[in-house]
C-alpha cells in the first residue's frame, strides 16, 4: 500500500477515534442547570435560601452517583431582582454555559423578563419561584414547568381565613409594579365575590427601607386586616414602621408565601408573631411527610459538612423543585437534550415526591395546587 494512502487512513482513524471517545466522554460530563436569582438587594436572603434548598438536594444526588451517572452542576448568577440583569444572565446561561435547562429563576418581574428568552431558545424552564396567574392560565407554554401553586390560589386560602375570622375591612400594601397591579386586581375581584371591597390600597417602591408615608396612608384607612403585597426587607420595614407608629391599632397582617417568613421571624423577632402566611408546601419542620424528613436529613448532612443552614419554607420549596428537576432528568435518559427533557417531565402524571403530589402532562404544566395557611407563633414557630 502506498505510504500516502496509509497516512490518509491513519489520519482518518485518529479523527474517528477522537470523535468516538469525545462523544462517550461527553456522556459523563456534568448536567448544567442555570439560575438567575437575587443574591444581593432586599431579596438576597430569599434568593440564597431557595438556591441552597435546591443545592442540598443536588449535592445529595451527586453523592449517590448523580443522575444516570452524571453529576448536576447548578450555576447561579445574581440579578439583584433587576429584570434587565435577569435577561443578561439568562442569555449567558443559555449561550455561554450551554445550560440544559433553566432552574429556579425568582420573582415576577425577572421571570417575565427571562421566560421569553428561554421559550425562543427551547430551553426547559423549571421550578421558578413565582406564582403569577398568567404563568398558569391560557395555552400551555411547552418549556415552562411550575412546581408551586399560584399566587391566586394562595390568595383564595388567605381570604377564607379572613372570612373565618369575621374581618371585613381589608387594605392592601403593594409594590408600584406590574405584579403589584395584578395582585390588586385579583384581590378586588375576589373580595367582590364575597361581597366585600378593599378599604384602600397603598403602593411602595422596591427597597423602601423607610415606608413611613405608605404606613401613614394605610393607618388612615382603619383596616382590620392588611394584605402585605411586599416581600423580604421591604415587608420587614413596613411591619416595623407600622408598629412604631403612634397611631397604630390592632390589625391582622396577611401575606402570601413569597414574603419570606423566615426573614420576618429573624429580623422582626416577637413582632412577627401573629402574621398569617399561606404556604405552598407542607411543613418542613414537623416531619409528618416523607419529603420533609428527607429535607431535614439533607440539611443535617450539609451542616455536618460545614454549612450553616436552617429549615424554612422557602428552602423547602427549593428542595422540592430540585427533586422534580432530578426526576425529569432521570426519565430523560443518560444523555438528554432539551426536547427529551420536556417530554420526560410531561410523563410525571400524579408523581409522588414523598407525600407531595406533582402532576404534569402535555396539557398541564402546573405541577402542584397544594396550599396551607400558617400563623407565626411564639418563638417563631409556625402553627397550621
From TrEMBL:
Family: Belongs to the leucine-binding protein family.
Keyword Signal: yes
Top-rank lineage group of the source organism: Bacteria
Annotated InterPro entries: Leu-bd (IPR028081), Peripla_BP_I (IPR028082)
UniProt keywords, alphabetically: Receptor, Signal
Protein name, UniProt field: Extracellular ligand-binding receptor
Domain Leucine-binding protein: residue ranges: 31-377
Gene3D superfamilies: 3.40.50.2300
N-terminal signal peptide: 1-25
Amino acid at each position: 500500500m502506498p505510504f500516502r494512502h496509509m497516512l490518509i487512513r491513519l489520519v482518518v482513524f485518529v479523527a474517528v477515534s477522537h470523535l468516538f471517545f469525545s462523544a462517550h466522554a461527553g456522556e459523563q460530563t456534568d448536567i448544567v442547570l442555570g439560575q438567575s436569582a437575587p443574591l444581593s438587594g432586599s431579596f438576597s436572603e430569599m434568593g440564597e435560601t431557595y438556591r441552597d434548598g435546591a443545592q442540598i438536594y443536588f449535592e445529595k444526588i451527586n453523592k449517590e452517583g448523580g443522575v444516570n451517572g452524571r453529576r448536576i452542576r447548578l450555576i447561579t448568577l445574581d440579578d439583584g431582582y433587576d429584570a434587565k440583569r435577569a435577561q443578561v444572565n439568562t442569555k449567558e446561561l443559555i449561550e455561554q454555559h450551554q445550560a440544559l435547562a433553566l432552574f429556579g429563576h425568582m420573582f415576577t418581574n425577572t421571570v417575565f423578563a427571562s421566560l421569553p428568552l428561554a421559550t425562543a431558545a427551547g430551553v426547559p424552564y423549571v421550578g421558578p419561584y413565582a406564582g403569577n396567574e398568567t404563568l398558569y392560565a391560557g395555552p400551555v407554554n411547552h418549556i415552562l414547568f411550575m412546581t408551586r401553586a399560584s399566587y391566586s390560589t394562595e390568595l383564595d386560602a388567605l381570604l377564607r381565613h379572613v372570612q373565618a375570622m369575621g374581618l371585613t375591612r381589608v387594605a392592601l400594601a403593594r409594590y408600584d409594579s406590574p405584579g403589584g397591579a395584578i395582585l390588586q386586581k385579583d384581590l378586588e375581584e375576589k373580595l367582590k365575590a364575597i361581597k366585600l371591597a378593599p378599604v384602600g390600597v397603598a403602593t411602595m417602591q422596591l427597597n423602601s427601607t423607610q415606608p413611613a408615608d405608605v404606613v401613614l396612608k394605610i393607618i388612615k384607612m382603619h383596616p382590620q386586616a392588611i394584605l402585605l403585597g411586599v416581600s423580604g426587607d421591604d415587608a420587614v420595614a413596613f411591619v416595623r414602621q407600622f408598629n412604631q407608629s403612634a397611631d397604630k391599632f390592632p390589625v391582622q397582617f396577611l401575606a402570601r408565601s413569597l414574603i419570606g417568613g423566615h426573614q420576618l421571624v429573624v429580623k422582626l423577632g416577637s413582632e412577627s408573631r401573629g402574621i398569617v402566611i399561606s404556604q405552598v408546601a407542607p411543613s418542613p419542620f414537623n416531619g409528618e411527610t416523607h419529603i420533609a424528613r428527607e429535607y431535614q436529613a439533607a440539611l443535617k448532612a450539609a451542616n455536618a459538612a460545614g454549612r450553616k443552614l436552617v429549615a424554612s419554607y422557602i428552602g423547602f420549596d427549593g428542595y422540592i423543585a430540585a427533586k422534580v428537576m432530578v426526576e425529569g432528568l432521570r426519565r430523560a435518559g443518560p444523555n438528554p437534550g432539551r426536547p427529551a427533557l420536556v417530554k420526560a417531565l410531561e410523563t410525571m402524571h400524579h408523581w409522588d415526591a414523598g407525600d407531595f403530589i406533582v402532576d404534569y402532562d402535555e396539557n398541564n404544566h402546573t405541577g402542584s395546587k397544594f396550599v396551607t395557611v400558617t400563623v407565626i407563633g411564639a418563638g417563631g414557630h409556625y402553627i397550621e
